[in-house]
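Archive transcription. Copying these from loose printouts into the bound notebook so they stop getting lost. Printout 1 of 2:
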Amino acid sequence: MKRFCLFLSLLWILPLATSFGQENRPELGINLEGYDYPYPVEYYALHSQGQALDMAFMYEHAQRPNGRTVLLFHGKNFNGAYWEQTMKVLLEEGYDVLVPDQIGFGKSSKPAHYHYTFHQLAENTRELVDSLDISKVTVLGHSMGGMLATRFALMYPNEVEKLILENPIGLEDWKRKVPYAGLEQWYRGALNRTFEGVKSYMMSSYFDGNWEEKYNEWVYLLTAMNESPDWDRYAWNSALTYDMVFTQPVVYEFDNLEMPTVLIIGQRDRTALGTGMVPDSVAATMGNYPELGKKTADKIPNSTLIELDGIGHLPHIEDFELFKSKLLPALKK
């Protein structure tokens, strides 16, 4: 069965339904107004591309600090809240933890117009890090956050002690196999996003058909703002960031990474952009994480590959204890 292009094609065949499957949970604003994050949220006043923006973040200090800070980058379909368990454990281990919502995501601003690049998001984050007087960080990026973490490490190698990539996308260049989907196409798909459509996509690509009730939280946070009067602005930001992910690969620069790098790869993951836009025979060659993990580790000069059998796209959500057992030793090496 053909997998779908980040639930784009699937959403077009489903009727718009904002509450179906959400079990009467409240509607939210496009900046997740009304939803509490696991730790206090602060805002960095960012001036970028001629406009004033608010960059939301959580920044927590360990009670028994070890002198190190971990910077966490969220994925495309997520926000900082899904790092709750990871933050808790890191704090207990003595790490200070910084978790930003990138512009266009979570509780951060959704500008009407913004030129999204991984360079720009990395620069925004660097400004935030500097404003907090943090000199060095260990960077952990998941999914799209892995692409951003790679760009951040390439731009600021002297500030990154270690790079950890958890099921990062961008380990292959989809443009070589998939026809270009323009902004209008991404925008229409985002406008028609539904709870059941997102759930079906995640179940297929992220969890290989294995669904648990706890995963509904992340579907809810992608669809609970469908009734917002600003929904079209949210959808436009989503389209812009899809285009960023598709057109700005980092796969050709892994050999330039200078710091120790750890790849934590769930082997059941099959996430790839554009599989719904190509023949099944081509789609079958995409998102092969067991193969992509090995190829990427071979490209990075000082890398370690950790393979998680039976785990999909979100190790820190699907099996946190397993993820923790691999993450903590990797941080201490």
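Printout 2 of 2:
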Amino acid sequence: MPSRHRLLAVLVAIMWGVNFLAIHLSLQQFPPLFLVVLRFALLAIPTVLFVPKPDVPLRWLIGYGLGFGVVQFTFLYTGMAAGMPTGLASLVLQASGPFTLVLGVVLLRERVRLAQWAGIGLAVLGMALVGFSQAESAQLLPFVLVLVGAFGWALGNLSGRLAKPVRPLHLAMWMSVVVPVPMLALSLLVEGPRAIGHSLATSLTAQAVPAWAGLVYTVVIATVVGSGVWTWLLSRHPAGVVAPFSMLVPVVGILTAAIVLGERPSLLEYAGGAIVVTGVVVGSRAPRPSRPSRPSRPSSPSRPRRPLRVGAEPAERHTPMVLAVLGVAPDPGRDSRACGAR
């Protein structure tokens, strides 16, 4: 992977990590469910006009939109609005990786290696530590909401995997078409027309500029540019080479929230976060299949056997040799995934 491509992967991770701060700013103005409507409506309009529809079964397109778009962002935005710290939200959302593995086993009968189960165990342990710390500070409900959002991301991953799109970015863009209508109905039912109307009526004031800036950042930088560059990298390098860079997202998210918002996770949350990231890395490592062994050299044409004297060695001895060379293969089933909170 050339150095400039590594820099691009790091840049995407920074875009996605800072995006959690952008979401925080937007939530200061708009109700969480209505913010999901705005986000995906702004994506859906240019998508329908300019992006070709992906050639995938409709049920998987809808499933991807409902899991990745509706479930993930409904619970992520609601959890953050309910008090989930911005930096920790970027970390807890990484639980989508272990969730995807487990759902693949249960629903798709996929085989999971021992190392992947070990990664799941580490991630669960880390999440338990973060959850325990949040419960001590009376923030368990926001933690659970964001965790459900990670589960929605995993459901979207499965639908995206079953869709098998030729152009993944087209599927990611057209997924946005599925989201606005059900989310608007849910927002009207839960948040009510009054809250929505008030957020729109006050959105043209100077105080609402950071919220609009955050929304534009989420749509343009994090989703279009970030997902576009990430897809471009995946089209040129194995997924196992590109995917580990996404582990920088919670690091950037936590650092950004600490610098801008003054958030300071507890020592227990730092320890849990490190264990979660370690578990995701361990679970995403691919097996090391052996390359085909070199064929043994063909034996020489048969010659008349000479009589052997006692203590003498044969004139020719053929000893075939096998060279086993270990390599690292990508794991195409882990895709992050994407655009989590992107």
